[in-house]
Amino acid sequence: MHTDSHNAPKKSGAWFFILGIGLIALFLLATNFFRGGTAATTDPEDPARDVERVKNLADLQAENEKKLNSYGWVDQAKGSVQIPLNQAMTLVLAKLNATKPAPAYPVVDNTGQPVPPTRLATPAGADASDALPEGQDKDAGANALAAPVDKSEAKSGKTKKSKTQQ
């Protein structure tokens, strides 16, 4: 019988824990040394700087308000001017309403050939006023995408039940 294995002291993991704490402490000391060893001493709540910042903000807002609501020269040599923002929006809107929309890229037909900008890209023989499929009455007033409705059922208020509803 071997009694040596039962009497041997068990190895503890405490040395591993102490080594880890020591390495963390060494890391913190090294980073403190390389940072300079002192904490930041600047006061973020400096009243003199606060007053200066508030004044600078008020000046900037007044300058922006003046530029947004007044006429002036941007570059007189080039003939560039500034106009009030509301006036600029009115002019741009009038220009946009006066121009006909056009695609931003070349439009091709189903054969891959570019469509001239003067011709609409519609299928051959299609009439823009004939939006209903064949067999539908134009005076029916129904949506072309809606399911067809039997007129006799629509007048009586009866509808067909699907197989799942029966």
The portion of residues assigned to helices is 40-55%
**What share of the residues does DSSP label as strand, in percent?**
under 5%
Work out the number of β strands: 2
The SSE order reads HHHEEHH
- Low-pLDDT residue spans: 127-132, 138-147
Please state how the strands of the largest beta sheet are arranged side by side.
1-2
The number of helical segments is: 5
Separation of termini?
87 Å
**What would you call the structural class?**
mainly alpha
Query: For the report, how would you describe the main beta sheet?
Result: 2 strands, antiparallel
Query: Mean of the pLDDT scores?
Result: 74
Radius of gyration: 41 Å
**Morphology call:** flat
Please explain how this structure is put together.
This protein has 166 residues and is mainly alpha-helical. The protein has a domain at 71-100. The protein is 41% helix and 4% strand. The protein is built from five helices and two strands; from the N terminus they run αααββαα. The protein has helices at 4-7, 14-35, 47-68, 85-98, 151-156, and strands spanning 72-75, 80-82. It has a two-stranded antiparallel sheet with strand order 1-2. The model is unreliable at 127-132 and 138-147 (pLDDT under 50).
Can I get a quick summary?
This protein is flat.
